[in-house]
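Subject: sequence -> structure tokens, single chain

Hey, anyone have a minute? Need the predicted structure for the following. Not urgent.
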Amino acid sequence: MFEEIKERVDIEQAARFYGVEFARGHMAHCPLHVDNTPSMSFRNGRFKCFSCGEGGDVIDLVAVLTGLSIKDAAKRISDDFGLGLGQGHRPTRREQSTAERERAKKHAFSLWWHGAYNILARYRRFLALCKEGFRPRAPGEEVVGDFYIALRELDLVDYLLDLLSFGTDDERVFIYQHYGNEVRELAKKFGYQSIGRAVG
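Reply:
Had a minute. Here:
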């Protein structure tokens, strides 16, 4: 089963599927530490981080990213990619097609929430500048409305950024359902045609 997974699942495709952010070419930001300069390389079906030293094949990568054992990581890959390994039968075309659609949906949602995070982070910087720029400098000085907007919005944006960074998939779906329109409008204000284009 392990060798078949390595042969059938492209490591870069799997890395993207499980949330690794690629910068250029075969280089990505290592998700195992703060990595401002992309230090994770993908070559010949293997990955290697030149910063923290972590490396291995696609199963090792998924095990590290998900906190699963090697055996459970292999099963997870088989399930997520519709391989049907270890189940006593090969998946039918219909099962493969269903798994492919699920993968595409998960990938699209991953792009959405990474883009939403970048847009909200940019908005947060703008609000922080407003808060500082419009705050009263002397007692009795008139307070500009933008100062109050910044104060009100900052807490909400911080909350949403926390959920996007550390929340569960269900919490990210909650943001999509309840704040998706607001994030879409912010994306337009910042010149993005779609939220997915804000990734990277």
